[in-house]
Amino acid sequence: MKTEKQKAFTLIELLVVIAIIAIIAALLLPALAAAKKRAAQAACLNNMKQLGTGMMMYVDDNGGAFPGIASEHSGFNAADWIYWRTNTALYPPIEKSPIVAQVGSASRSLFRCPLDLSDADRLAQVDTPDGPYLYSYSFTGYGIGAYPDFDPTVNLGMSSVFTGAAGNLTAYIFKQSAVRNPALKIMLAEEPGSSSDSPSGGNAINDGRWEPSVDPLTNRHGGKANVIFADGHFEMVTSEFGDDITNSMPGL
Question: Who has the most CB within 10 Å: 81, 110, 213, 214?
């Protein structure tokens, strides 16, 4: 009994199928890439929401006082909002940061945007034994004696500042009650991790302090940055919004 031969694809039919698959892939890949980027943006925002919650809980538990500035120029203090220094032989690890304890999460990924992908610029600009700042977010800190008063005894906030040697510290505590219009003042900022996500192509984030008009906001989220305001709510804002100190200086 004869059997019918199985029909095979011709070369032309195979090429047509391959072409159709390529067209479908070309149509789907941009949509998939956009969806992946939106998911990473949402993860970044979720990070900041948790940090904002932790910050507010810290303030509530400490008599209305904000945590420390975590600046490379101020030196480590146990009250710093983030323990970012990489020399864990001398300093506690980031998982022990005060505001992390408030939200019950000890993951270092909480402090970094998934779209903050490169450490090259951070590593290139390091000139202190503290090491690079490997995270994406920072805390508003005008510090002592800053504009507009230039009074060396006044902390303009929003973070507390501790100066002097260990055992002989001077504490410049900044309290939540000193923030005017907290719904309008940026508390936690998202800074550039590299020149590629900086609006000016400038330096990458280098410590836990965001000094407005000096440190830009990132533009990694479609030209905007995620920020948390002093009342705990979030927004996406432009770098120009961050450059305007009326949107972050607590006393204005």
Answer: 81
